[in-house]
């Protein structure tokens, strides 16, 4: 499926600074970036980097002097996902996880799974399969956590949200991840462009490792599960923030949008409890 | 320099379980593991893994049934470190950090640098070079944080320790890392075997990225800086715990020791404020 | 009902110090302290005080020099409680609370009700009457929080316990209080001697203000509700700790016991969900 | 000294609600409220209450139905304070504190002194007298905590502020109180109207119990110490919030102002380190 995505970031910069920007659609075997353009002021040195795993890519911008800058990104992306029925998929035990999966069991900055063992076990521990546990976690978050802009900030973590029960997509994702890891289900953060998100913005949700697939879950239920263009997956938002700023930098604009650009009509996939369908972006 | 290191871990296991163990001396171009033996009960399936960066190596043990197990590790390691004077070493700006270094600027589970910006800036921000800042951080921790066994636990983080001001080597390391990152100095957790540590145990300290080197700092000042055999470096203890346990597992024994095994006499290197000497294990 | 209570506190004191001790059975119109003795070393100056509300009474001890002391308290108390059916008791709105009740709606050190509004409302908000809400809170705590000695410490608060889900009687009480206040139900901490508590110790539970009575609840369910001798009620443990120590003081002994001393057989009252019975110590 | 104070509070009320309002100038032997008027809509039932100590007074408003209300308060107050030199004032030990003073040593919701013992002791423990310690605390806060509107919220406590180092007058006061109590110096929260505060608003600072007086300290240094009209003193903001709202209430207006109304010119008193002058409002 083709999507046209675009982003705009603006900054007020008062001293020589460095920015690390995570807004590029990821290039994978199953997400083809057909064309993309990034426009930045010519006096800014930009550099495209890939992270240590060779997967996520991001831009580093060196701003030599005070200025006001605008960064624009546009891409046409051909995306691929699979829907798999997990009802009879065999669970993979920890003893069989690939080494690359194991870190997603560890607690991280915003997902303190180590502090949530008893709560996760008391609340979700008796539910049948891992798939059903993640489904129940997603349901619980959707039901109990209020989507509320401005309630949380960049320091808010799953440990806060599980009690305070309000936040934005990032907080929903962190809580989902933390609860999964507390149940020994690997989980990771997913950021991307989201079709039909209102108001348009960058979006965050999470993936749980189930039966050998990274299955997408979104406790906000704000978008269809198959309307996402992946920017990055990571331990949590600490490793995939839209922008990391080093210097005297004030963000002024953060915009993102996602339009459907395929000929065939878009058929949204939503959560359905009765069916064990899992959406995976390979 | 040669060291003979050994470890013993014991567990009471009440149901089929999986253990991930981080006790092997790391093999690097400058740390030669001359010989090593790991002894585990024969009915336990063991597997040696390397992490996603191909650096740290660890063991996964599959325990099929309830039992009491003991794991023993012995190794003879030839170690190499360099002492470099950092007085006139040029600082490297964020804009020049290799991509592999950048993640060590991000906050992590036990090192919430994002919550310590103002404190770090108010307390250490006006100190001259990055090297001197890290030295001052290490000094401050040594002076203000009391080494106190049993005060903290596996959930304790730098955010707690900066205020509560008591803990063990792990807590000292986490606080050092968090304060460095808050000042835009990459920092990482270092676990190893430590010569002359009393009582003998595994040890943790931290490395700061200064002038292109990962320089070792130890705010506990319990050991000479050149008496360490590296097990792992990582974001923080979440990624390098001695043992991660999945299942019904209770640790019963945790022992580690480190003996000097070289012919030439050991010449300890301690902290010296006046000299800008940094110890690096390459 | 008559109870014989006794307590022993021991301290290692290394410098001139002051202790404030809360172990006396409270004297009220309905709790008659028939006889009591407090024995302390003769060189220690003791003073009996009553708090600002003229209700709780406590001892202040001035220890002039280093020593090891033992404080013993014995009392025979005639106690009175009432069981009232709250099914048809009219609820009292905030607008009618006496001024002395209002502070028990405020958050306090260990009962951060302000941080639990959404959680309390999402979990208990739709339950019928205030009495049933408190009953459901007590049930939920009993079911989800594990009684575990040594897991928590004197800094642990309701905000911790609601997530960590383990603790001792003090933590159970604080969580109950915090959840009540978050639902606009006044609640206070209750410490006392508890009959049939195993192992014998001081006990803590809580009272909720319902229909004009302070009704006793105990989420630990370790004792019959009618086996308590009140020492103090307060905002939380911060105001009613067994001992506050000022100086270089290390507690060495903390013992308490409670024996039934009446002729008529003791008829224990336990929780019964179906009946709206509330036990109140006037 | 005479001050003319006024306040305006506005609320959007969507269901029958109760408000408890703390805006009246306190009436004491040394603060004479010469005249005051409170205007509220006639259909709202208002009731003036005094707290359990018979000191603070506050209003309870019963709003029977949805509405938009505005509450206005105006008063002419004749105020009295004393400046006392504390250089040679004998310190009072805990053993001599009146029972009414003791609760101000306990930790409270926003002043978790129990978590700050080591920090307070390490940072201020070696400073000479209690007066000088409180002065040093006030200095330290003024120097390290940035006055920043909107950074904190009603859940922010001293434990947060000591690390995050930003906040408003309320946060400055809570931190001062917590650090004092951690050093066994009783301290309490003070809210009032403040002359020359820019922009005009309610103000909060704190009092420390030194040599038998409650001495005023204000780490914000935004106002002269002798320009305050007391509304309330309390454990912390939990007990003296401007407004406690029970029901579906949204605050829309919060205004306060304070004008000098005396014939003699106002002579401001500011902090002076060299002199041990303490301002006390009796």
Automatic annotation (TrEMBL), chains A, B, C, D:
It comes from Mucilaginibacter pallidiroseus. It comes from the Bacteria. Pfam families: Bact_transglu_N_2, Transglut_core. Transmembrane segments: none annotated. This is Transglutaminase family protein. Residues 161-221 form the Transglutaminase-like domain.
């Amino acid at each position: 499926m083709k999507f046209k995505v675009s982003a705009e970031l603006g900054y007020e910069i008062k001293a020589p600074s460095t920015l690390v920007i995570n807004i590029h659609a990821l290039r994978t075997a199953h997400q083809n970036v057909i064309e993309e353009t990034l426009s930045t002021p010519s006096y800014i040195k930009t550099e495209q980097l890939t992270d240590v795993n060779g997967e996520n890519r991001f831009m580093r911008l060196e701003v030599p002097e005070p200025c006001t800058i605008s960064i624009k990104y546009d891409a046409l992306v051909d995306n691929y996902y699979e829907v798999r029925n997990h009802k009879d998929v065999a669970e993979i035990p920890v003893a069989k996880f690939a080494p690359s999966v194991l870190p997603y069991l560890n607690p991280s900055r915003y997902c303190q799974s180590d502090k949530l063992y008893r709560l996760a076990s008391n609340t979700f521990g008796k539910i049948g399969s891992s798939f059903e546990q993640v489904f129940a976690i997603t349901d619980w978050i959707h039901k109990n956590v209020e989507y509320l802009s401005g309630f949380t900030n960049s320091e808010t973590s799953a440990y806060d949200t599980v009690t305070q029960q309000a936040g934005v997509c990032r907080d929903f994702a962190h809580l989902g991840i933390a609860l999964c890891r507390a149940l020994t289900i690997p989980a990771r953060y997913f950021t991307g462009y989201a079709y039909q998100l209102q108001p348009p913005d960058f979006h965050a949700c999470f993936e749980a490792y189930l039966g050998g697939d990274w299955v997408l879950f979104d406790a906000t239920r704000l978008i269809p599960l198959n309307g996402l263009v992946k920017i990055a997956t990571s331990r949590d938002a600490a490793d995939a923030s839209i922008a990391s700023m080093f210097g005297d930098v004030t963000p002024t604009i953060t915009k993102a949008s996602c339009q459907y650009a395929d000929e065939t009509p878009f058929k949204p996939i939503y959560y359905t409890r009765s069916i064990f369908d899992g959406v995976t972006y390979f």
